[in-house]
Design a protein that fits this description.
There is one protein chain. The protein has two domains: 80 residues; 233 residues, BirA Bifunctional Protein, domain 2 (2-Layer Sandwich). The protein starts with a helix and ends with a helix. It is an alpha+beta fold. The protein is rod-shaped, with a radius of gyration of 40 Å. The strands form two sheets. The chain has a seven-stranded mixed β-sheet with strand order 1-5-6-10-9-8-7, with helices on both faces. It binds 3,4-dihydroxyphenylalanine. 3,4-dihydroxyphenylalanine binds next to β9 and β10. The site of 3,4-dihydroxyphenylalanine has 11 residues, from β9 and β10.
Amino acid sequence: MLDKIESIKSEALNASSGISDGDSLEQFRIKFLGRKGTIHELFEGFKDVKPDEKGKVGKALNELKVLLQKIYDDKKSEYEKTGGADDEADITLPGRTFNKGTRHLIHQAIAEITGIFSKIGFDIYEGPEIEDEFHNFDALNTPEYHPSRDMQDTFYVDSKGKDKRYLLRTHTSPGQVHVMENSKPPIRVIVPGKVYRNEEVSARSLAVFHQIEGLYVDKGVNFRELKGTLDHYAWEFFGKGLKTRLRPSFFPFTEPSAEMDVECILCKGDGCRVCKHTGWLEILGCGMVDPNVFQSVGYDPDEYTGFAFGIGIERTLMVKYGIPDIRIFYENDIRFLKQF
Ligand code: DAH
């Protein structure tokens, strides 16, 4: 019996080094400590031990039991500490999904609109956000006394010690001036970017928003091409075959000037709350480049003509999706952003 105990002891010690996971731990328990296990068997056999050996054998048997229980307890707590994690990954488990997020709606729109124009030959230019008065106003035929120069509308930058007055651009139109100053016609360019106005924030206006400017200059560019190009844009962005119209308007840097409307996407022109029952939604300002603008960049207005347009991104998205309040773009409420 004593020999048997000794051999089981070394068998158990051997087996314990093979315990590597929950399964092998359980196997160990069943084999040595279980109801039909080795210890149980040995205790069953104890009654047949000769009385004069009972003391020795009993002691050895008890020691074996305590040892096996300790091996089991130690291995178990080791296993639980590692969270039961095996070294090998279980590749049958389903993968963990995570939220990749998306581009902000405004940037999606800029990418889509610049994409539409670059497919028909327009380059992309990004001008500075801090401009001087020449690029933002003078070169764009906007004289000194023009109301948009007013402190109420324009954020001026501290220009002390500078030779010019600087400001945060109030529109992307100065991008036209930079492009014309630095290249010769033919020019086809769009200028996306942020613009700044000293406006009270409300459901309809923000102090920082986005525009995309367009400019096309060459010999013999006419108003028909302006309409054709902008119709193409409107159909690509808002929907094929939607009715559009040009309404006469005024901008200092274009003559003649117009605003473009698209048939209300929600009511298809019948009149609803979104289009204020007119059936139309305004989407951009445009016109033929004023000869004075050409002169200020050194182009000969008798040689070149061109058209320009300005798209307000937030406004465009409000029209496209029937968004009633411009501030929602910047609240970054995930429930709003997730929809796009
Ligand atoms: N710059 C104008 C604005 O901020 C938008 C605009 C209108 C741009 C007509 C143009 C244009 O190029 O031709 O309201």
